[in-house]
Design brief:
There is one protein chain. This protein has helices spanning 4-14, 30-38, 49-58, 76-79, 92-104, 128-137, 161-182, 200-205, 215-218, and strands at residues 20-24, 43-46, 64-67, 85-89, 109-115, 146-153, 191-193, 210-213. By secondary structure, the protein is α/β, with parallel strands linked by helices. α2 (30-38) links the parallel β1 and β2 (43-46). The protein is globular and about 50 Å long. Bound molecules: pyridoxal-5'-phosphate. Pyridoxal-5'-phosphate binds at residues 24, 26, 47, 68-69, 154, 196-197, 212-215.
C-alpha cells in the first residue's frame, strides 16, 4: 500500500497553523481513507455523488465530507442530508437548490463560491464580474439554509510557478474585495480554498486557508 500515513504527515507538516486540509479521496478505496482517518484526518473531499454515497454509508460517522467537484442541481438532494461543505458553487440556480434541500433536511449547508480565474478553458466557475453580480443582486441573503463561507478556485495546471502565484493572488485580492463589500460583519465568510498536490506550497503563501490535496497523500488515481 502507498504510504498514506507518511504522506499525510508530510503534507500536514507543510501547512501553517490555520490552514485546513481537505484530503481528496476520490477514486481511492475505503482502506486508503481509513489509513488517513486513523492518523486523525477527518475532512475528506469527493467529487462523484454515487461514490460519495457508498463511502459515506460504510465509513465512520464523524467524517466531514466536502463535495469538491461540479455538482448538478438534480443531485443535490442525495448529499444534502449529510454533506459538510459544497466547495464549488458557481450559479444562483445551484445555490437555490442547495437551500431548498438543506431546508428539507432541517439544516444549514456550508458552501464556497467557485471562481474561474485560470486561463484554461473550463466550463465551471464564476468570473470575477459574475461573482460580483451574484453577490450584488442580494438574493443569496434570503437563503437561510445556506452559509457562504468563502471562495474556491483552481489555478492553471502549468509549470510556471509565477503564473500560478498571479492567479492565486488575484483570488486572494478578490476575496478581500468581496469580504469588505458584502461580508464585513460575517465572521463565517473566511475561507480561501486554493492549492492542490502540485501547487499547495504556493497556495499557502497566497493566503489559502483550505488546501485540497489528493495525489500527494493517496498516490495516483486509477480511473
Ligand atoms: C481532484 C481534485 C483535487 C485534488 O487534486 P490532486 O492533484 O490529486 O491533489 C483538488 N480539487 C479539486 C476540485 C479536485 O477535483
Amino acid at each position: 500500500m502507498y504510504d498514506v500515513k507518511g504522506n499525510l504527515h508530510k503534507v500536514l507538516s507543510d501547512l501553517p497553523d490555520g490552514v485546513k486540509l481537505v484530503a481528496v479521496s476520490k477514486f481511492h478505496t475505503n482502506e486508503y481513507l481509513l489509513a488517513a482517518y486513523e492518523e486523525g484526518q477527518r475532512v475528506f473531499g469527493e467529487s462523484h455523488v454515487q461514490e460519495l454515497k457508498q463511502k459515506q454509508q460504510s465509513l465512520p460517522d464523524d467524517i466531514e465530507w466536502h463535495f469538491i467537484g461540479h455538482l448538478q442541481t438534480n443531485k443535490v438532494k442525495y448529499i444534502a442530508p449529510y454533506i459538510s461543505m459544497i466547495d464549488a458553487v458557481d450559479s444562483m440556480k445551484l445555490l437555490r437548490e442547495i437551500n431548498k434541500q438543506a431546508m428539507k433536511n432541517n439544516r444549514v449547508i456550508k458552501v464556497l463560491l467557485e471562481l474561474h480565474i485560470a486561463e484554461e478553458e473550463t466550463k465551471y466557475g464564476l468570473t470575477l464580474d459574475a461573482c460580483r453580480e451574484l453577490l450584488a443582486a442580494g438574493e443569496w441573503r434570503e437563503l437561510k439554509n445556506v452559509q457562504i463561507c468563502g471562495l474556491m478556485m483552481m489555478a492553471s495546471y502549468v509549470e510556471d510557478q509565477e503564473q500560478i502565484r498571479r492567479e492565486m493572488m488575484m483570488a486572494s485580492d478578490f476575496f478581500d474585495e468581496v469580504k469588505a463589500r458584502f461580508f464585513a460583519d460575517d465572521d463565517q465568510f473566511c475561507e480561501r480554498s486554493w492549492g492542490m498536490s502540485h501547487d499547495y506550497p504556493i497556495a499557502v503563501q497566497c493566503h489559502s486557508t483550505m488546501v485540497r490535496v489528493g495525489t500527494t497523500i493517496f498516490g495516483p488515481r486509477v480511473y
